C-alpha cells in the first residue's frame, strides 16, 4: 500500500514539477508578492483534485484519460476538453523540450543539443512502456525534491530571510485558482492512463495528501526566495539561476542537472498522456509512436522557453477553471445525481 502510494505520489509530483515550476518561472507568473494564502489554497485544491481524479480512474480501471474526463465534465463537452488536454500536453511538452535547450545553454552547449538529447532519452525511457517512467520517477524524484529544498533553504539562511515576513500581504489569493487549474489538466491525462494499475483507495489517499503537502512546502519557500530577488528576475531566462548567482559553480552545475531531470519527468508524463491517447489509432510500438510525436514538436521549440510559459500557462490556467470547479464540487454533484 505505502509503496504503491509513493509510486503514484512521485508520478503526480513528476508531472507537476517541470521546466516552468522547477525553474521558478511558472511560480513567478502566478504568485510573487502577497501569495501566502494563495499557496495554502493551492495545496487544498490540488490534494482534493488529485483524490477525485484518482478515485474516478481507479473506479473506471482506465488505461487512457477519456473515460475519466467524461465523468468530470460530462459527455457533452468532454470532446472539447479532450482536444484541449491533447493540445495542452502537446504544447507543454514543447515547453519542456525548450527548457532542455535552455538548460543545455548553461553548459555553453548549442540550444539544439539539449533538445536532441531529451528526445533520445524519452524514446529510450519508453522502451519499457509505462513501467519505465514509474521506475525512473521513484529514483530521481526524491533526489530532485531534496536538492531543490537544499538550495532554497540554503538561500533562505544565507540571506537571513524570514519565511513568514510577507504573510500579512494576501492580496493575490485568487492566484490559487488558475495555478491549480493549470496543473490538474495534465494530471487527468496521466492518472487516467494508470487507473488499471491502482489496487486500493488507501494508496490514493497517500498519493493525494503527500503530493499536495510536498508541493506546498516547496512552492512557499521557493516563492519567498523569488520575492527577495524580484528585481533580478527580468535578467534571467530561468529565475533559479538568479538565486544561484552568488553560489559556486558546482552548485549551479548540480542544480542545472536537477532542473533538466525536472524537465524530463514532466515531458515524460506529457508524452505518456499523448501516446496512450493515440495508441488506439496507430498500430505502432510504444517507443516508435513516442519518437513520431516528439519529431513533430521540434520545430516549435524555436519560440523560446520563457515566451512559451508567459503566454501559454496563464491562458491554460484560465481555460481550465471549469474543470477545477467540477473537481472541487465533485462530491456535491455526484450526490445530487444519485
UniProtKB/TrEMBL annotation:
InterPro entries: YkvI-like (IPR038728). Keywords: Membrane, Transmembrane, Transmembrane helix. The keyword Endoplasmic reticulum does not apply. The chain crosses the membrane at residues 34-58, 79-97, 109-127, 139-157, 177-195, 204-222, 249-274, 286-305, 311-333. It comes from the Bacteria. The keyword Transmembrane helix applies. PANTHER family: CONSERVED MEMBRANE PROTEIN, MEMBRANE PROTEIN. This is Membrane protein YkvI.
Amino acid at each position: 500500500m505505502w509503496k504503491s502510494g509513493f509510486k503514484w505520489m512521485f508520478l503526480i509530483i513528476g508531472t507537476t514539477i517541470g521546466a516552468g515550476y522547477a525553474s521558478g518561472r511558472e511560480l513567478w507568473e502566478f504568485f510573487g508578492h502577497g501569495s501566502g494564502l494563495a499557496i495554502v489554497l493551492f495545496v487544498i485544491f490540488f490534494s482534493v483534485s488529485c483524490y477525485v481524479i484518482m478515485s474516478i480512474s481507479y473506479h473506471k480501471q482506465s488505461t487512457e484519460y477519456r473515460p475519466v474526463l467524461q465523468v468530470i465534465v460530462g459527455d457533452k463537452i468532454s470532446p472539447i476538453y479532450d482536444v484541449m488536454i491533447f493540445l495542452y500536453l502537446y504544447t507543454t511538452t514543447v515547453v519542456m523540450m525548450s527548457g532542455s535547450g535552455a538548460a543545455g545553454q548553461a553548459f555553453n552547449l548549442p540550444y539544439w543539443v539539449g533538445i536532441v538529447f531529451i528526445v533520445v532519452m524519452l524514446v529510450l525511457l519508453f522502451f519499457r512502456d509505462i513501467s519505465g517512467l514509474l521506475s525512473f520517477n521513484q529514483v530521481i524524484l526524491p533526489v530532485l525534491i531534496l536538492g531543490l529544498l537544499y538550495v532554497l533553504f540554503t538561500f533562505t539562511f544565507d540571506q537571513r530571510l524570514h519565511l513568514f515576513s510577507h504573510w500579512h500581504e494576501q492580496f493575490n489569493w485568487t492566484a490559487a485558482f488558475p495555478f491549480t487549474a493549470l496543473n490538474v489538466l495534465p494530471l487527468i491525462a496521466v492518472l487516467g492512463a494508470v487507473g488499471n494499475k491502482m489496487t486500493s483507495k488507501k494508496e490514493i489517499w497517500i498519493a493525494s495528501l503527500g503530493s499536495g503537502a510536498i508541493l506546498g512546502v516547496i512552492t512557499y519557500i521557493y516563492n519567498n526566495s523569488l520575492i527577495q530577488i524580484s528585481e533580478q528576475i527580468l535578467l534571467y531566462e530561468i529565475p533559479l539561476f538568479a538565486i544561484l548567482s552568488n553560489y559556486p559553480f558546482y552548485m549551479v552545475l548540480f542544480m542545472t542537472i536537477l532542473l533538466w531531470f525536472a524537465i524530463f519527468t514532466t515531458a515524460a508524463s506529457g508524452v505518456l498522456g499523448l501516446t496512450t491517447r493515440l495508441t488506439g489509432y496507430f498500430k505502432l510500438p510504444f517507443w516508435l509512436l513516442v519518437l513520431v510525436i516528439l519529431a513533430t514538436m521540434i520545430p516549435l521549440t524555436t519560440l523560446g522557453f520563457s515566451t512559451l510559459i508567459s503566454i501559454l500557462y496563464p491562458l491554460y490556467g484560465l481555460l481550465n477553471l471549469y474543470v477545477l470547479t467540477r473537481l472541487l464540487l465533485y462530491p456535491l454533484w455526484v450526490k445530487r445525481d444519485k
